[in-house]
Specification:
By secondary structure, the chain is mainly α. It has 8 helices and no strands.
Length: 200
């Protein structure tokens, strides 16, 4: 977006570490999922980090992806008829996707920043967000997920337990194992050495 010269020193080291986190195999899996989820109309990117970034940059593919996870009546992101060409409109489209992803259930720490995608600052963060979105879609299992469920790990789900009043009262009488146990303990057989000798 802004004209920036080449990075040197520590800035360059940091940027190269961020770029090394990008996973090419994960890119292939994400592309397959997005195409299966949205249909062949979204096309396919050129292989590699830059091709993936250019494919997602205007926000349209991302918006179609998140909309496809909702039932037909409720699409959270408005998609323009023609892809936006103005920079602020493209960034706005990405921001709408990010808000919809959070509303869907993606944790804020898993959501990338708009510049991470738009300026290709951290494409690994974009992959993390898409992975989190896919995992949620598989976990929800509401019929809106398309593709191989093995592409993503299911998120752990809450297993709430209900206890009756009598069970809660019983628990008050039990000494927890953290406190130790004195069952079976006695002083038989214990010796403390010889008694004190008084010599006169």
């Amino acid at each position: 977006m802004a004209n920036k010269g080449p990075a040197y020193g520590m800035s360059r080291d940091v940027q190269s570490k961020i770029e090394k986190k990008y996973d090419d195999e994960l890119e292939n899996r994400l592309v397959e999922w997005i195409v299966a989820q949205c249909g062949a109309a979204v096309g396919r990117p050129e292989r590699g980090r830059l091709g993936f970034q250019v494919w997602l940059k205007n926000g349209i593919v991302l918006s179609r992806l998140v909309n496809s996870l909702y039932p037909d009546g409720s699409k959270p992101v408005k998609i323009p008829d023609t892809p936006p060409t103005m920079v602020f409109k493209q960034m706005e489209q990405i921001a709408q996707f990010l808000k919809a992803a959070e509303d869907y259930g993606v944790v804020k720490t898993d959501v990338f920043q708009t510049v991470d995608l738009f300026e290709a600052k951290d494409m690994a963060a974009v992959q993390r967000t898409l992975m989190a979105l896919g995992s949620l879609a598989v976990t929800k299992n509401d019929g809106n997920y398309h593709g191989d469920p093995n592409w993503f790990m299911k998120k752990a789900q809450e297993h709430k337990r209900e206890f009756t009043e009598s069970q809660l009262k019983e628990g008050k009488n039990v000494i927890g194992l953290q406190m130790g146990s004195n069952k079976g303990a006695s002083q038989s057989g214990m010796s403390y050495g010889r008694p004190r000798q008084i010599i006169s």
